[in-house]
Amino acid sequence: xxxxxxxxxxASWWPHAEGRYERGNQPSIxxxxxxKPFAGMxxxxxxxVSRVVGPREVLVDQANWVRGRVTxxxxxVDASPxxxxxxxxxxxxxxxxxxxxxxxxxxxxxxxxxxxxxxxxPQNDRQHDRHRADRVAEKAKASPDHIVENAKAQxxxxxxxxxxxxxxDPTKVAKKPDSAKTAETKTAEAKPTKAKLAPHLAGNxxxxxxxTPAETQLANVY
Length: 222
Hints:
Mean pLDDT: 75
Distance between the termini: 155 Å
CATH architecture of the domain at 10-120: Alpha-Beta Complex
Radius of gyration: 52 Å
């Protein structure tokens, strides 16, 4: 990438560069910033300057500042009192973090013609971004506002289900309106029963003439 051929742990690049490459305390495009072992960086760290923003800020390309990732154009600011870049802060998650001690810059002899071309990030970077987005979404779901909204939605859903079930329940017989019931009652009352009709029909039947004994005898003679 830079034409600098060094190996070993990142912190060992500084002594290995002695007599082979120029070293210094001022940034330039293509220079390699070498970090000293510090805190979690037990073997140091290296980053390549891709742009000089100003006397106290550069942009760098680097690998594994975020574990398993290649990051480009990440801001680094000089935190040293003498402006000699022996202490820097690296931007992460929108802010510049803690001061990190450094050795300085290693300068390549000749910068390759393809320097600055796009670096293809590992495939797992996109997976990392998706996992991070999933965690943010889960955190949002756990917020009090979301819990209240979810509970309200569940109540509304349950209410809708109960109403629908009540409307479609076959065991529920619809009540007839009072007007229909009244009409049926009046019709039933208006229909006379057989018991009531018998006396009425008996009263209207023609009376049979009474037969005297003499008439009976005459009938027998004839």
